[in-house]
Structure formats: C-alpha cells, structure tokens
Amino acid sequence: MSNAPDLPPIKEYKSAQYEFNDEQNREFSALADSMRVTAGLMQLAGLAFTVLACLTAAQVQSAEARWQAYGPAIGLGAAALFTLCFGFWTGGAATSFRKVAETKNEDVWHLMNAVGSLRALYGTLRTIIYGSIVLTAVAAGMVAFTFMGK
Fold first, then answer.
1. Among 11-15, 42-46, 98-102, 128-132, the least confident range
2. Which of 42, 77, 81, 94 could form an SS bridge with 53, CB 3.0 to 4.6 Å?
3. Is residue 3 domain-resident?
4. Has residue 8 been placed in a domain?
C-alpha cells in the first residue's frame, strides 16, 4: 500500500477555443487543397519567368545592346518575383487552413494566422494594382503628349 493521499481525478483539459465540426473541417481541407494547387502553379510560373528573364538577359548581353534593351528581362524578373512571392504566401496560408482541419484545440489560432496571411497578401496586391493604375495613367499621358506634339 502507498502512503500517498487520495488525489481527486484529473479533469480532462478542454480549451475555451471554438472547435470546428467534421463538415467544417472538410471545407477547410478542400480550401487548403485548392490553395495548395494554386500556390504550386504560381511557383511553377515564377520559375518559368525566372528562366525566361535569365535567357532574355543573356541574349541582350550577347548582342552587346544598349542598357535600354534590358527592359523585357527586367519585366520578366519582376513577374518572377511577383508570382514566386504570391505562390509561397498562398502556400503558407494553405498550410494554416490545413492545420485548422487537422488539429484540435488550436483551430482559432490557425484560422487567424491564415486570415492574417491572406490580409497581408491582398493588401500587397491592392498596392501593386494602385501602382499599376498610376503607371498606366502616366504612360497614357506621355503617349497623349507625344501625339499632341506632332
């Protein structure tokens, strides 16, 4: 016999966080699958843009062209950076959505992590779109002034 005092039974630990049910977890899992495929395709496109940017830069270099001829290579490099960043960012959010479906007692934390990633992703996209609109307006103005000058 043990001299240890009788201890009350240990209560099962329950989190105060919300736990999604099986149907909701299937939806999160399907979303994570779709996002993972999209992320992979964006990363593949980024790799293709990287290869094209390098080949274009090498072609311009071998032709001993002026520095202005590097424009297409720079554009392809920017496209590569854009698609790779968004591909990896989307993949990170997909991982968080997958963890919502797979873990217990951490659903809200993983969900908020995924939502934060998506908020940052779309905030960056919004900034890029605004910049593109401004650059398009400037280019249109330059073309208009060129035609008006003739």
1. 11-15
2. 77
3. no
4. no
Report the chain's C-alpha Rg in angstroms: 26
Residues in the chain: 150
Q: How many domains does the chain have?
A: 1
Whether 16 is covered by a domain: the verdict is no
- Return the pLDDT at 61: 84
Alpha-carbon gap, residue 117 to 32, rounded angstroms: 13
Answer yes or no: is 6 within a domain. no
Q: Are 115 and 94 in contact (CB under 8 A)?
A: no
Mean pLDDT for the stretch of residues 116-141: 88
- Structural domain that includes position 34: 22-149
* CA end-to-end span of the chain: 107
